Amino acid sequence: MQSEPVIRVRDLDFSYDGRNLVLEDVNVDVNGGEFAAVIGPNGGGKTTLLRLILGLLEPQRGTIDVFDRRPCESRRRIGYMPQYPRLDPDFPVTVMDVALMGRLAKGPRVGPYRRVDRDVALGALDEVSCADLRNRSFSRLSSGQRQRVLIARALSSEPDLLLLDEPTSNLDPSVQDDLHDLLHTLNERMTVIVVSHDVAFVSKHVNRVVCVNRTVALHPTSEMKGDLVSMLYGDHGVRLVDHEHHSHED
């Protein structure tokens, strides 16, 4: 794994309406091979930051480079799992169909998928332990299985950088543990960035924390203490969920 930054953001401002800044004066580096978490309150700019990294949005000020190029030029090296995928769970597609969607940018523009596309998609399903479900309807899967298949869709693009927006939301603790283990395995060969509200997961599993609340700051996981969490989330705090199935308020 490379150790130089794969993401470099300098002096970045972003606003949806041209007036009210969602992100202001952002400066951040994410190094190759890191497992980083993006945390912060709702509306703080977490998903906006991911969309800027993907090149789906353009900053009003400043620069952002991904693999030393503009984000839109590096998009084929990025796998992305959105928080709300635009995929109707009742639409009649199989698990394999969903995994193959990750090949759309790398396969032929017209015509059927190639054998190599199907092999890569099946390999991605196998990596997330869903290859045996490839012919099953996506709508018949459990929530945890759906999340795994959506990760396989992102892996089918053969990325060097994997971005996941709340991949463990609304999942049982045991299913969350399985996904955490999967992400650690994937991090052995690619950079992983996860948006998460689960601060216990952040403290336990990631290398660095990107704290987003209009501005952005980097912290090692050792600094994930109550005062930092309170600064981000306010006086109401945030529930910490450990994966021994206990919880407490910080």
- Poorly predicted sequence stretches spanning 5 or more consecutive residues: 236-250
Measure the end-to-end span: 35 Å
Mean pLDDT: 83
> What composes the largest sheet?
6 strands, mixed
Task: Tell me how many strands there are.
Answer: 11
Structural class: alpha/beta
Helix content: 25-40%
CATH homologous superfamily heading of the domain at 5-87 and 162-249: P-loop containing nucleotide triphosphate hydrolases
How do the SSEs run, as a string of H and E?
A: EEEHEEHHHEHEHEEHEE
CATH architecture of the domain at 5-87 and 162-249: 3-Layer(aba) Sandwich
- Tally of separate helices: 7
CATH topology of the domain at 5-87 and 162-249: Rossmann fold
CATH class category name of the domain at 5-87 and 162-249: Alpha Beta
Could you tell me the radius of gyration in angstroms? 18 Å
Widest sheet: strand ordering: 5-6-7-3-8-9
Beta-strand fraction estimate: 25-35%
Shape: globular
Can you walk through the features of this model?
α3 (115-127) crosses α4. This protein has a domain at 5-87 and 162-249: Rossmann fold. The protein contains 7 helices and 11 strands. It is α/β, with parallel strands linked by helices. The radius of gyration is 18 Å and the shape is globular. It has helices at 46-54, 95-100, 115-127, 143-155, 173-187, 199-205, 226-233; strands spanning 5-15, 21-31, 35-39, 61-66, 78-81, 161-165, 191-195, 208-213, 215-220, 239-241, 247-249. β1 (5-15) and β2 form a beta hairpin. Strands 5-6-7-3-8-9 form a 6-stranded mixed sheet, with helices on both faces. The model is unreliable at 236-250 (pLDDT under 50).
